């Protein structure tokens, strides 16, 4: 599939922001995993919210909710 958005500066910004939030979430989850005696719950919740917002933005603007739902149903069923 050819990416019709690759040269769109708004798409590029949205993707960079999503990557940034996913990296921040990964960092907090890694901290919690590596230091189970500490509580990173509030920071993880914060980063989950930020990452979800950015992912939802990409889905809504560029990739389509139906396409994502089809993928989820194919991979994990329609729980």
Over the alpha carbons, how many angstroms does the gyration radius reach?
15 Å
Question: How many domains in all?
Answer: 1
Q: Report the end-to-end length measured between terminal Cα atoms.
A: 28 Å
The global form is: globular
The helix fraction, in percent, is over 70%
As residue ranges, the low-confidence spans are: none
Counting DSSP H or I runs of 4 or more residues, the number of helices is: 3
What is the overall pLDDT average?
94
Secondary-structure-derived class:
mainly alpha
Instruction: Report the biggest beta sheet as strand number plus sense, adding barrel if it closes.
Output: none
Which series of helices and strands comes N to C?
HHH
Number of strands: 0
Work out the strand percent.
Answer: under 5%
Structural features, described:
This protein is mainly alpha-helical and 79 residues long. It has one domain. 77% of the residues lie in helices and 0% in strands. The chain has three helices and no strands. The chain has helices at 9-34, 41-63, 65-76. Helix 1 packs antiparallel against helix 2. The longest helix is centred in the first third of the chain and has 26 residues, at 9-34. It is globular and about 45 Å long. It starts with 8 loop residues before the first helix and ends with a helix. The mean pLDDT is 94.
